[in-house]
Amino acid sequence: MDGSGEAYQLLMQRLAEALPDVATQVRDEVARGRVVPSSKLSTPEREERETRMTEAKVGRLANADVASVPYSDDERLAVLIDALIRTATTMLASREALLELASRYDKTVVIFDEPDETERVEVALADETQTARQIAETVGTQLRFAADELQRDT
Amino acid sequence: VTAAELIRTVEGAIGALEAAYRGAATESDLYEASLLAVVVQAARDAGGTVLLTNDGVSHAAELRFRRSPGNLWSGNFTYAVVSFPHTGRRLEAHLGVYVGGASGVAHECDVALLDQIEADRSRAGSVHPRRRALVACVEAKHYVSSPGIDVGRGFLGLSSELGQSKCSLGFPARSSSSLATLIARRPSECFDELTPGSAASARLRAHLDQEIRNWIA
Lengths: 154, 217
Fold this sequence. Notes:
The complex is a heterodimer.
Chain A: H1 4-18, H2 20-32, E1 34-37, H3 43-56, E2 66-69, H4 73-103, E3 109-113, E4 121-124, H5 125-153
Antiparallel strand pairs in A: 1-2, 3-4
Helix pairs in contact in A: 1-2, 1-4, 2-4, 4-5
Chain B: H1 3-20, H2 24-45, E1 49-53, E2 63-66, E3 79-83, E4 90-100, E5 106-115, H3 116-125, E6 134-140, H4 149-162, E7 167-170, H5 177-184, E8 189-191, H6 199-216
Helix pairs in contact in B: 2-6, 4-5
């Protein structure tokens, strides 16, 4: 897709402001690239590496070699979109599972606290599950459509 | 789709998530606690009767979980007591407690399933439960993007301390092939794309169900 590199940069800035931990995870994955055995490199990727190795007189690629292939700009965007979909899905699934457990004991609230009882956080599961469901539905629908379109363009 | 359209769509999604996202720590707490719920389901599948309690005897007046690892015997936190009719044996499922490893060092278990006799010993003596009484342990990593190999290395270190076949790693993201390969060669299990209700959750539940049945036998 034209402009996907710039789109990734811009969206990562926005993500870092809104959900910094998710941005860090996406950035780390993109920085690592796709790690693949050299036997699974595409022909152009293999030829490019072998040319460089020949020029450097360091032998040839072996089957035991492990290579890293950088993500394309479109693939970077796809990684970002996938992380957002999983964020929405996990938010909903976690709350639903806890609500189901809590409801068996006529509870709708769970409390998280430090062992020394200094940082109490209450989560109203019924309300939060409803909100998370709405978000998962809208975010999921919109982003899956975007991801499909991106894949079609690639 | 144009870049401008995609940017608008993704920015809208980020905005919607931002409004409800509770931050890394609490979302991670919720994820870990949801896997306790999966463990409780597995215990029921294995024929257990579950009591959620803060004192081991009565129903929990409030559901209260640890945000950080702590001692099993400390604080008024919620855990599950699982009774198995006809056997008299009991398990306890705890969130975020230390368990003593092979080297003598205590390690955090995100979700620990323990023989109640060992849990009673821990409370009485203010000592960490020993790894031999650990029935299963789930290491929860709240990763929505594929975790790095360091997560796998850390998990393998934990599992070598607590018992490789007893330990499972779970996270919501799809695993990289490197991480999957690293763990596939070991007796421990890795459940990627793990959220409650997912196919991976059903596999984890069945795995734990079998571990519990083996323990009963």
